[in-house]
Predict the 3D structure of the following.
Amino acid sequence: MIPTLFGITIITFLIIQLAPGSPIQSKLGFDEGVKAEEITKEIIEETNKLYGLDKPIHVRYGIWLKQIITLDFGDSYKDHRPVIDKIKERLPITLTLNLFSIFLAYIISIPIGAYSAIRQKTKLERTSTFILFVLYSIPSFWMAIILIFFLGGGDYLDIFPIFGIHSAGYENFPVHKKILDFLWHITLPVFCLTYADFASLSRFQKGSLLEVLREDFIRTAKAKGLKDDIILFKHALRNSLIPIITIIASILPAMIGGSVIIETIFSIPGIGKLGFEAILSRDYPVIMAIATISAFLTLIGILISDIAYAVVDPRISFEEKV
């Protein structure tokens, strides 16, 4: 993980530094229509020096790398606040949304996929498959707009809030009401982050379970007279989870990336919305911090899936055999 993360930091730093535009131009007002002749050369040089942009790119990378080793991502160009403080405020919100989404996606998709495998070509299986693929084809931003229109106080029902994660006066609520209020606010965003995974995960689960059910050890279990439920849940289902576990490594970073749109639509102060605002203002320290954290979470997802392999299938071991 360490050399991989190191390589990712190099690529991320270079891509961001070579991107068109400049944080200095944004800071001095070029983006707001300020004419270049109104900004003196001395002001530009002083601003470059203030943000360390007057140094060669390899020197800037070395300074930045030393900072992130100590979790010091520098100060934001936009408001001069420490980047790590802004990350601490936003990251828990995004992780909470995504962990809820991953849990719901797996807890719903695995039973649907297993049912589709053992009840093929039934009306219920075909109907559920059709509905899942219709949901899979709907873009998340369009789904969010539809939910707001129908359930968020549009022209129809006003059931769920459509912005923020807390109601007014949240600080004075008792603990149980705080939890309910938070869940009430994140219902629509979590659904928008989750529904598209139902179809893909359930199809993975169905295909994997069908493949396992054709294995020799399943036929042996049937020949021994074991009940179908025991064969399915104790032997087949457990072995079919390996491909599903593999997907964990990609779902977590993908959801964090996808949360940019949902957090912006629902005005949720998460890491996705922070990254979107940082890109618009060319806030390099914030962008690089978010990119590095996303890369780290990706590697953590891969590590979790590797460990889960051995838990699900005892035949898998990462110890060297002599």
User: Anything to note?
Assistant: The radius of gyration is 25 Å. The chain has a mean pLDDT of 81. The chain has two domains: 2-69, 86-312. Residues 128 and 266 are 29 Å apart (CA to CA).
